[in-house]
Design brief:
- This protein has one domain (2-135).
- Helix content is 54%, strand content 10%.
- The chain is built from five helices and four strands; from the N terminus they run βββααβααα.
- It has helices at residues 32-46, 55-69, 89-92, 95-137, 154-165; strands at 2-4, 7-10, 22-26, 71-74.
- The termini are far apart.
- Bound molecules: zinc ion (ZN).
- The site of zinc ion has 7 residues, from loops.
Length: 166
């Protein structure tokens, strides 16, 4: 029940409990498809939830990605005693085992997949803040027609000074 290097040891969940324990070997690197799927999963988990990041919701999206992409090999066997195919895990392994596998994968790859997402969020927030502060500077109570002049920052100053000149 421990992650040592890239190998996780778990209690044997195989039919008939033929092993003393089972070993899960993680990939040395996360495949690009897995990394992108992880980023998408994290985005889905955080959409509309800025300020209250929900770890459980993140795991709901992210853990299946780990199960599908992070594993290189394992010792699990199926009903027939033959090695369990990697893509057959979700239907064959008990939830607890899958959870432990994904949780350990998060220890190995979590930071790697979080870093690019953090950069994206930072960029997005910066862009959002810029847009918001710009719109806040706009004078209120202007007619809808004057919105077409928005692209030129000088236009509002011209508009307000016109009555003074007249
Ligand atoms: Zn086993």
């Amino acid at each position: 029940m421990a992650l040592v290097g890239r190998t996780l040891t778990v209690e044997c969940p195989c039919p008939g409990t033929p092993h003393e324990s089972d070993a899960v070997e993680y990939r040395r690197v996360l495949p690009l498809a897995g990394g992108m799927a992880a980023i998408t999963a994290m985005r889905d988990a955080t959409l509309g939830a800025f300020g209250k990041f929900d770890n459980l919701r993140l795991a709901e999206h992210l853990f299946p990605v780990y199960l599908a992409h992070a594993i290189d090999a394992w010792t699990f066997t199926g009903e027939d005693g033959k090695p369990l195919a990697l893509d057959a895990a979700d239907a064959a392994l008990p939830f607890e085992t899958k959870y432990l596998i994904a949780d350990a994968a998060d220890d190995l790859f979590g930071e790697e997949v979080t870093r690019p997402l953090a950069l994206m969020i930072e960029k997005g927030l910066r862009a959002g803040l810029t847009a918001r502060s710009t719109s806040r500077k706009k004078p209120s109570g202007r007619s809808p027609r004057s919105r077409s002049a928005r692209s030129s920052p000088k236009s509002s100053a011209t508009e307000t000074s016109e009555p003074l000149i007249a």
